[in-house]
Records
---
Amino acid sequence: MLSKKSRGQRCLWLMFVLIIFLAPGLKTQVKLQAESDFNQPASWELGLRFDLFNRGIKWDSTTSSLKGMNLVAEARGKNLGGTVDLTVFAGAGNTNLNGMLFDQLPITLDYQAGSITGLILGLAADWPLTRISDFRLGLTADFTTWIGFKRKFIIEDFISPGEAGAEPDWAQASGGLFAVYEGYQNVEPFLDITFSVLWGTFKMTEKIEDLNGEENKSIKGSGLLGISLGCDWKLSDKLYLRPVVRCYPASKFGLSGSLSLSYDF
Amino acid sequence: MRGPDKSKNKNFLVLILALLVFLVSGLGPGKADPSAQNEKSEKRIAAAYNKNQKRLTLTNVRTKPGNKVRRFKTIDYSSIKNQGQKYSQEKILVKFKPGLSSQSTDSLLAAYQAKSYHLIPRINVYVVQLERGVTVEDTLSALKNNPDVLYAGPDYKLHLCATPNDQLFQSQYALSNPGGVLVIPGSPTGKPQADIKATGAWDYVKGDPNMLIAVLDSGLDYTHPDLANKVIDHGRDFINNDNDAYDDFGHGTHVAGIIAAQTNNAEGIAGVAWNCRLLPGKILDASGEGDYSGLIEALIWAADYTNGPAKVGVINMSLGGTEPDEVLEEALKYAYNKGIVLVAASGNEAGPVVLYPAAYDNYCLAVAASDYNDLIAYFSNYGPEVDVAAPGVEIISTYPVALTEPGYLPYIFASGTSMAAPHVAGLAALIKSAKPRLTAADIMKVIKYSPDDIEAAGRDDFSGYGRINARRAVAPYILK
């Protein structure tokens, strides 16, 4: 279960992201109406995406990395309302937070158990603003939340076996600019430069006989600037492949990648 | 220039000779035969203080003035610190499946950016040095997916246990028992690891100077060289109604030394609560007698005591009476509700009666005494109220300088549940230092649920849940 604070924070971010993509969308709509090539009919793509996620994080005074692997189904509405590309995705993923020390529990627990499975949900939006030569420029924003399933462990060596429960969750919100090169026939390379924040909590509980403890560790992403490089590769009239690499230059550990395959209806 | 060189060599030889003579003379016998001295001055101090109801009984059975203390050669291992990293950031260990040619292993290791590597024979494990910029985690993760790899793991760091350099530490089997012939009176043979694992605990926590342990006893010799820097102030004398809890009997000083004698000062003994400090409350007079009223008053005083950021987190009571008392229970409850961990000795009558306050199970940890073989001491009281055991046989600790016979260092060996309780109080202080937000109840449970079971399986009336294990109580449990 998420804490109230964490849920509230997540709702605020979700609203923030929605406002970001709705407000400029409305504003730029008028401007974009004049540019005929932006006025294409809306369409939908359905696809599958595989992510390898690795981002530098901090808790207390420790620097580490949050590693994950996700498989998500995504639906992408292109040119919705004549202006915005909106992607909604959901799936399952693993997150690895090895090395986290819960030192305020009655019995200190050192998490070294590897991946925890969870649900991943999110949305992303792109708003083209203008075109310069073969480049299309615009705003981009995305929000991802991962909610881990509780993983249980047996605590041994004490007077009787105890139990520990690990339950992490995290969210990431990014917003920034994108540039797409449209000069090639079947491939559209793109570059995103975004301001990206990650936050989350790792809740650990323990119980030995009548000794109970709960500790919540706050996680924060390190390296706010994210740079993504990728391309939309048109394999056929309906089939698209989208490889993306994202790095966080200020973060020692930050390098992620994703590959999605989608079908245009 | 041959002349001066020759003279230098000569001087050097003379210096070595002088050192040898000095060392050899230092290894000779002391002034007196220690065992004869021990025998001569052995005295029982538990005796008859429980004759009157609601009188407090000291819970040690005998004290022995210390042997003439020899000078020991010491090495300061504690200066070698654990740097905190669990494993090397440059090296990993890899074992390939049998049958792989050395050419294949070479090319595989090169593919994983090995800067250099060598094989440990017999077990065929490679120690692989990684190129700069290549992370151990990523390399291991890649290697684990390779079907030719049988094992790939980090190269974990070794570190020394925090061993203090105190001169008499080798006699403190209670903190770290090496087994074999012990350096305590009678030179008995001890069982290895029949100790509270203090050195293992000190790797993780050494305590907070603002964490005070109130010693409600016969006072404390605050001039003692191993205690002077560990006493926050001169405390409170409830016998003479002043602020000078000087120990004119000896029991409190001994108890206080076990809890928090100055550690790693190349002198005397080590205290369990390495960095914590002491607050003496004198409730026993010069003959070791005291009343419940003194204890009750001292409990309230200690619970309310603050000195800047320092306040009492643990109260040790190496004493007790045979009678329950509502007011005493109320005073215990008052301190307990302020988050203070209360520790008391179970008593030395070898009977099925745990003394009060130890018998107040809701508020107080009742401590039985064990020995160097993890056997319960013959004198230790027993009953359902006993929570844990700790070493309480032939425990060396501080002794008032003024009461020490000339020619002896101010340390003595003593036995009793009085000596067992302070080991538990010291552990409670270490836990509370590391985890100040834990309640007294939580800390009591941590201590109760983490011991080594030394008697009948599970909880029993002699050792409670077992002999305390400080390392298990404070070290991280690894979830894997």
Note: The CA atoms of residues 263 and 270 of chain B lie 4 Å apart.
---
Amino acid sequence: MLYNILFFCIVLLFIIEIFIFITSLFILLVVLYYIIKKSSNKQQSTLTPTLDAIENIDLEQSETIHFPKSDNPEIETLHQKLSGFFIIIKNHLNNNKQFTQNASHELQTPLAIIQGHAELLLNAPNLGQKEIESISIILQNASRLSRINQALILLSKIDNRRFTDIENVNLCKKTLDILQRFKDSVKAKNLTVEDHFEEPFFIEISDTLADILITNLIQNAIRHNIENGKIVLKSASDFIQISNSGLPLSEPPQSLFKRFARQSDLDESLGLGLSIVERICQLFDLEVTYHYTPGNHTLTISKVKTTPKQEE
Amino acid sequence: MKVLIIEDEQKLRDVILRYFKNQSYLCDIAENFKTGLRKLISYEYDCVIIDLNLPDGDGIQLVKKIREDRPETAILITSARDSLNDRLAGLETGSDDYLTKPFHLSELNARVKAVIRRKTNITNHQLEFGIFLLNLDERSVYINDNLLSLTKKEYDILLYLVRNKNRIVTKESIAEYLWGDYMDDAVSFDFIYAHIKNLRKKLQEYDAGSFLKTVYGVGYKFSIT
């Protein structure tokens, strides 16, 4: 009996001890939680100006980055380091742009000289058919090189934002206008154009770039079309869609917008058209998406839905 | 016809000079802004080909100068600068045409002839070549006084070939001349082929089909020999 009571007391004591232990652990946790929370709160408030400064940077447009002064020496060091990185990135970006621009421009004169001399040679007396063909190959490739060069110059100009003729442009009207220029090509492949434009799609865009954008899309829809195929045009107030019949892609669709991506070696295109399209879209808050249904390729240009930032 | 070529790249200047001399033009050259200006003050030209990017000055200033002194001179600008703004600036200051580098010499040639024609005050513009007679105002072609019925594109191709007569003209240069950058090479070559076929058929009705020669894989040549 005594043994039993003793056992009970020990167990009770043990339970109480455990209870006290758990309670103290809980209290400790709660205290720790508040300490951590407080300190992290404090950290957030000191870093907020830094974060704001970083969030406001547009790498393309900002020339310098401004951080507010801070009493905390660590934060000051952080600001200095970040400014340093910004300058390095900015320099690389500028060098890169400058290089493409210079390289492309400097190529034009030598290309003109090659082309001119080859053309002169083509009409030299006493040439055999083989020599004429060789000269013609030089000429063809000089002109291909020159077209690649033109496209790269265009890309670098877009990157440097050298287009200022911003207007409110109806892309549907633009599409129909530009299709007129291609009516010979449309006829050659015996294509049917189905105009299902319902609502005009208006955007604020450089008129020149809108022209290039739509020209590239139409050229694409004709080039990758099949004989007797279709081009279908659709629109709403927030998108425009151009689809064309065609064979399935041989490359993954993700590579479509990459520079120099071509579907096959037989492909006559330069592989720069769609990357130009993508670049123009990025510049004017537009989104270009590709969609494939059997026998049909669809490219859609739509306004980027700006989701409001979630405030805490 | 007197032509002044203002171009600072020696090799390009030479090639243009040789090409135009073959066309029996009287050619003069200037390698920079200063020489160009001096020659423009001292002599008279029917046409001036100006490169905009000169080492010692802006070609646009030369265009303005010519326009002030001799409005009847035809001006054609060549430039590596291809931006639309430059193009507009060039045309606004009074140049008659604009060609970006690199260009086909046959296209430069055809355009020089076209701007000279526009500037001369003859009322009836005609081009005679063997049994052919092209009336440039009516855009019509006669063979031994017989009027050919040509489509617009057929006429354009024939005019281009006649302006570059006795020379091989590549199909690339025809494509660029007719459609600019707006057409795929593959598609435009098919078109040229089809147009040439029809054109030759129409010429053949007057036994003139053999004047239009095909240089296999390269292009075409129009000659009466």
Note: The domain at 2-119 of chain B is CATH 3.40.50.2300 (Rossmann fold).
